[in-house]
Design brief:
CATH architecture of the largest domain in chain B: 3-Layer(aba) Sandwich
Number of helices of chain B: 13
CATH superfamily of the largest domain in chain B: P-loop containing nucleotide triphosphate hydrolases
Distance between the termini of chain A: 31 Å
Shape of chain B: globular
Structural class of chain A: mainly alpha
Largest interface: A-B, 25 and 32 residues
Strand content of chain B: 25-35%
Strand order of the largest sheet of chain B: 5-6-7-3-8-9
Largest sheet of chain B: 6 strands, mixed
Number of strands of chain A: 0
Number of domains of chain B: 2
Oligomer: heterodimer
Order of helices and strands of chain A: HHHHHHHHHHHH
Radius of gyration of chain B: 25 Å
Number of strands of chain B: 13
Helix content of chain B: 25-40%
Number of domains of chain A: 1
Shape of chain A: globular
Structural class of chain B: alpha/beta
Distance between the termini of chain B: 43 Å
Number of helices of chain A: 12
Order of helices and strands of chain B: HEHEEHEHEHHHEHEHEEHEHEEHEH
Helix content of chain A: over 70%
Radius of gyration of chain A: 20 Å
Largest sheet of chain A: none
CATH topology of the largest domain in chain B: Rossmann fold
């Protein structure tokens, strides 16, 4: 029954997203940061290779594959519920969702899934264009890396969503909780592997970073997709364990904040 | 429709369907004066004040009743409706709606009620209303064939057809409101909280919505608590009204009872066979208008009969009518002058 509800919610959100074609084009362009970082790191690795330096953890092709995987992960883990939630709380639009016999959370989850579905064809085209421009990066992934990659990507989506959900609950107390999310983008960008591959960080720093939730939103997935972590690796299961633990922490905090926040909710403007 | 169909399986029909005891709500709001200095001070040191939006109030509504909830802007009507529908946590008091505590927002409760706000739309703006209905069908566990049947029935009652397949943003205000009503009633709620459902609608659309609500109430026995600034909505639908002013409930009774309690006078209009001097008229009571050979008076009810008798004996009367003052005038006067505060 819940699956049927989710299917219908996602299909409606998908239809809604398709109504905003220009937004999808802009979104696709806005998410090309990994390609920009790719060209920076590839150039640096190429020059280092020519000078015989071994300061980089990967070669040119390695960085191309790494940042392509980052791009793929980002396409399915981008979360923006805090911005919509902020609008809904400040304008009182949350009221309509609270009146329905389904947790409002599912509205936001389905909106994200609907949007991913709407962007999927553009994403496929972008990946195709990348391989056309840089065929050296082409390589066939193993079935297990694809399967576990998909599982890890949606686990990352769940974690990112839970993290942002907690921050979004701040809207019950502050009018602009999205500013906290903007602040949290800083550690996310630097500690997740979005800008700097964690393999290029000093080992000591990396050990600490791996205890935070951020690497489990990009780096962990990329390592699975590029075949650096496999079934046989104990590290993969440890990674899933840490990811699940962080998810549980944020889920418990988020749930508590939701309950407390509703006591504060004034339904202003509606 | 059986009790189960309403989501009222556990509800005891001998009890009021809405039961409110000492319900009240206060908000803490930040307060700042205009100007640069004040804005700066407000940034570093916020000042708050407590607003008592709803003062302790008690009332009960029986199943199937249509009750008007009246008061000027900011009186606390919407805040009360939000507490009854579970959106706001009361600061104190006890509320049960259809046997449920609203703020717990249990699924069975949410399937029993609806809240329609005339100034807020809940339909998906860029998609046809049918898409929103499909979502509601899934959320409220309505089978596909039953959903289709209900959509057909409600669209016939509201006179909607091709409008349901157009994006909501392309609809007129009246059409949109009808679609909002449809969307809110697909799950056949037993209790309807309606906050200004005819706000901004033209006269025809208002009449259509009123007719629909009357028909819905008669057909399904639904309980309706309605706020409106249009007295025509209230007089057309409600026998009983609750009056609220500055958060305080000061009247709970029949609509007609307002006249007895707050307007203990009647309007007497006279037409004369010849001109009569204003000074002669003043002897019979408060003269409100004098135009040519006609005049109007307001006369207290308890002296109405002897006064009319004296008028008949001493004035050259061609025609005489006695009416109640318009309810709008009484309400306007009550709320404007704060007579009841």
């Amino acid at each position: 029954m819940m699956l049927k509800k989710l299917r219908i919610l996602v299909s409606a959100q998908h239809a809604l997203m398709l109504a905003y074609r220009a937004e999808i084009y802009l979104w696709v362009l806005a998410h090309t940061l990994p390609f920009i970082m790719m060209s920076v790191w590839m150039t640096a690795a190429k020059q280092a290779g020519m000078s015989g330096s071994s300061a980089f953890s990967m070669n040119e092709v390695g960085y191309a594959r790494y940042f392509l995987a980052v791009y793929i992960v980002r396409q399915f883990t981008a979360t923006w519920m805090i911005y919509e939630f902020e609008w809904h709380v400040n304008e009182g639009r949350l009221s309509g969702m609270l009146l329905r016999p389904i947790n409002a959370l599912w509205h936001y989850v389905s909106a994200h899934l609907g949007e991913q579905l709407a962007r999927f064809p553009f994403f496929v085209v972008m990946v195709g264009v990348f391989f056309a421009i840089y065929p050296k990066a082409l390589g066939w992934p193993t079935v297990s890396s694809v399967v576990m990659g998909v599982v890890a990507i949606y686990a990352a989506f769940a974690l990112r969503f839970a993290m942002q959900y907690c921050l979004a609950m701040g809207n019950f107390w502050f009018e602009r909780a999205s500013s906290i999310d903007q602040l949290s983008m800083l550690p996310y960008m630097f500690l997740s592997g979005l800008i700097i591959p964690l393999s290029d960080m000093p080992a000591g720093v990396r050990r600490v970073v791996y205890l935070t939730p951020f690497p489990y939103t990009i780096d962990f997935q990329v390592r699975i997709m590029t075949g650096k972590l496999t079934w046989a690796d104990g590290e993969m299961w440890t990674g899933f364990g840490i990811l699940a633990a962080w998810f549980a922490v944020f889920a418990v905090i988020g749930s508590g904040l939701w309950k407390r926040g509703l006591l504060q909710y004034s339904g202003q403007g509606a | 429709m059986g009790a189960d169909g309403w989501g009222l399986a556990t509800y005891d029909f001998r009890m009021p369907i809405v039961d409110v005891q000492n319900l009240h709500k206060s908000f803490r709001v930040s307060a700042s004066e205009p100007g640069f200095g004040h804005a700066l001070r407000h940034f570093f040191r916020r000042k708050y004040r407590l607003v008592e939006a709803v003062k302790p109030m008690s009332f009960a509504i029986e199943p199937g009743e249509i009750v008007g909830f009246l008061g000027p802007n900011g009186a606390g009507k919407t805040t009360t409706l939000k507490m009854l529908s579970g959106l706001l946590h009361p600061s104190g008091g006890v509320v049960t709606v259809a046997g449920h505590v609203p703020f717990r927002r249990q699924r069975a409760f949410l399937k029993t009620i609806t809240l329609v706000m005339g100034n807020k739309q809940q339909l998906l703006w860029d998609l046809p209303a049918l898409e929103s209905f499909r979502i509601n069908g899934a959320i409220y566990d309505i089978a596909d064939d039953e959903l289709a049947r209900r959509v057909k029935e409600l669209s016939e009652m509201l006179g909607l057809g091709k409008e349901l397949t157009q994006p909501v943003r392309k609809l007129s205000l009246g059409e949109r409101m009808k679609c909002e009503l449809m969307s809110s009633l697909l799950h056949r709620p037993a209790v309807l909280f309606l906050d200004e459902p005819t706000l901004g609608l033209d006269v025809n659309a208002q009449t259509a919505v009123r007719g629909f609500l009357r028909e819905y109430n008669a057909k399904y026995g639904a309980t309706i608590l309605l706020t409106s600034h249009y007295m025509a909505d209230i007089t057309a639908l409600c026998k009983r009204v609750l009056l609220i002013h500055q958060g305080k409930l000061f009247y709970d009774g029949l609509l007609g009872g307002i006249l007895d309690r707050f307007a203990p006078y009647r309007e007497v209009k006279l037409a004369f066979t010849e001109s009569v001097g204003a000074e002669s008229l003043a002897a019979f009571g408060e003269v409100t208008t004098v135009e040519g050979r006609s005049a109007s008076f307001v006369i207290k009810r308890d002296i109405l009969a002897p006064t009319v008798e004296r008028m008949m004996a001493h004035l050259p009367i061609a025609d005489l009518t006695v009416t109640d003052p318009p309810i709008e005038d009484i309400m306007g006067k009550l709320f404007k002058e704060g007579v009841v505060a």
